[in-house]
């Protein structure tokens, strides 16, 4: 029985289905959607809360600006989510010495939750790639690293073109 993903895939024009980056985006979409459901069910976390927990768990202490930059999200959106997570006891914050910025860290409850999140990530990863030989995983990782480097170049070019367009318009 076909599902929504099958319908979306067949609704996409055939030339796009063969584009490598489209296949990566389709994969990422499936992983994001299943992850969002798993994190809501297992940890009562929204997608943005899960992303915040992951970044703070890996990079703490973080300022609000640093966290927003890492997540590529609006500072206001991140601020509201951080405030709610502090109220739930998942995050802690304290003023940085000598300035108005704050450092965001995991609370003790947040650290325990982060450990459970990491365990689930490892379990999900094992399900996804556990039966794929290590040499194949290494090769795909190399290809993805190269594509990521080139994607960064594209992003840098687009930012530069956008800045040039803004200069011409102004």
Describe this structure in words.
By secondary structure, the protein is mainly alpha-helical. It has two domains: about 80 residues, Arc Repressor Mutant, subunit A; about 40 residues. It contains eight helices and two strands; from the N terminus they run H-H-H-H-H-H-E-E-H-H. A two-stranded antiparallel sheet has the order 1-2. The longest helix is centred in the last third of the chain and has 36 residues. The protein is globular and about 50 Å long. The mean pLDDT is about 90.
Q: How are the strands ordered across the major sheet?
A: 1-2
Distance between the termini: 55 Å
Count of distinct strands: 2
Note the total helix count.
8
Weakly predicted, low-confidence segments:
none
Q: What is the 3D shape? A: globular
- CATH H-tier superfamily of the largest domain: Winged helix-like DNA-binding domain superfamily/Winged helix DNA-binding domain
Instruction: Give the integer mean of the pLDDT values.
Output: 89
Report on the biggest sheet.
2 strands, antiparallel
Percent of residues in helices = over 70%
* CATH uppermost class of the largest domain: Mainly Alpha
